[in-house]
Amino acid sequence: MASAESSRETSAGTLRNAFGNVLSFFILLLIGVLAFSIRLFSVIKYESVIHEFDPYFNYRVTQFLTKNGIYDFWNWFDDRTWYPLGRVIGGTVYPGLTLTAGTLWWLLNSLNIPLSVETVCVFTAPIFSAFASWATYLLTKEVKGTGAGLTAAVLLAMVPSYISRSVAGSYDNEAVAIFALIFTFYLYIKTLNTGSLFYATLNALAYFYMVCSWGGYTFIINLIPMHVLLCIVTGRYSSRLYIAYAPLVVLGTLLAALVPVVGFNAVMTSEHFASFLVFIIIHVVALVYYVKGILSPRMFKVAVTLVVSVGL
């Protein structure tokens, strides 16, 4: 009798969870539609055009990429920009936006959806605003829960400061970079909670996409070290923290150096020094915890005294 009641309770709980997951999915879908449609005001009221100076330059670059291919794009010297000096486009732009829109255009045309490059560029920002809302849901859910994640997603979909940078026709770096920024933080928290090298690798790849997309990648490479240092100072070091941070610095820096506009700046400029300093600190802390685990408390105190004396 008791086993029958427990099985009924278990099945009822499973049904409630399934219903909650389906409901959350449809709410997320509606949030994505809201984020996309709310940014189409300029297109509906006027027409589908690129507006502002930087978006039009990015549109010209994307046109060149789709017409001439990626090899010519990396080596393109544009004599119409920064006139009369000209500009080596492949080495002076963050290519993430251009490569993203060019890939979307190629995929759509491969599926026999013949959209123009201009149309793809106009709608890239609204599409990625939906992605950014979903990434916000994942980030907040990982930290607080499903309800908080849905609330955060709908707030991001409607916040005016983000709408101004992702409205249809505003084809600028932030169009894809905000999504990359939020998704990188989500994967960092996910790695921190799971201790998985798989998520750590995905985190480094997301950071690489952010580096490709916007110079604001320095927000990531300074905020995450601050969090790691705070965890160490407050005694919250763990192997999961090491796995979340060390691969990001090593693999992320190597990948960032592959972006021509960044290059050796990934290891030579001051905004990256904090990440390397914390990288050294976390290895020292990891060594201390390892030695503490293999020595007795008395021998550990002797070892610490010896190291401090030699250091002084």
UniProtKB/TrEMBL annotation:
E.C. number: 2.4.99.18
Predominant cellular place of this UniProt entry's protein: membrane
InterPro entries linked: Oligo_trans_STT3, STT3_N
Membrane topology recorded in Swiss-Prot or TrEMBL: Multi-pass membrane protein
Database matches in Pfam families: STT3
Bilayer-crossing regions: 21-44, 88-108, 120-139, 145-163, 175-200, 206-230, 242-267, 273-291
Residue stretches making up the Oligosaccharyl transferase STT3 N-terminal domain: 22-301
Pathway note: Protein modification; protein glycosylation
GO molecular function: dolichyl-diphosphooligosaccharide-protein glycotransferase activity; metal ion binding
Catalytic activity: a di-trans,poly-cis-dolichyl diphosphooligosaccharide + L-asparaginyl-[protein] = N(4)-(oligosaccharide-(1->4)-N-acetyl-beta-D-glucosaminyl-(1->4)-N-acetyl-beta-D-glucosaminyl)-L-asparaginyl-[protein] + a di-trans,poly-cis-dolichyl diphosphate + H(+)
GO cellular component, one term: membrane
Cofactor: Mg(2+); Mn(2+)
Compartments (UniProt record): Endomembrane system
Enzyme class: transferase
Keyword entries, A-Z: Glycosyltransferase, Magnesium, Manganese, Membrane, Metal-binding, Transferase, Transmembrane, Transmembrane helix
PANTHER family: DOLICHYL-DIPHOSPHOOLIGOSACCHARIDE--PROTEIN GLYCOSYLTRANSFERASE SUBUNIT, DOLICHYL-DIPHOSPHOOLIGOSACCHARIDE--PROTEIN GLYCOSYLTRANSFERASE SUBUNIT STT3A
Homology family: Belongs to the STT3 family.
Protein name (Swiss-Prot/TrEMBL): dolichyl-diphosphooligosaccharide--protein glycotransferase
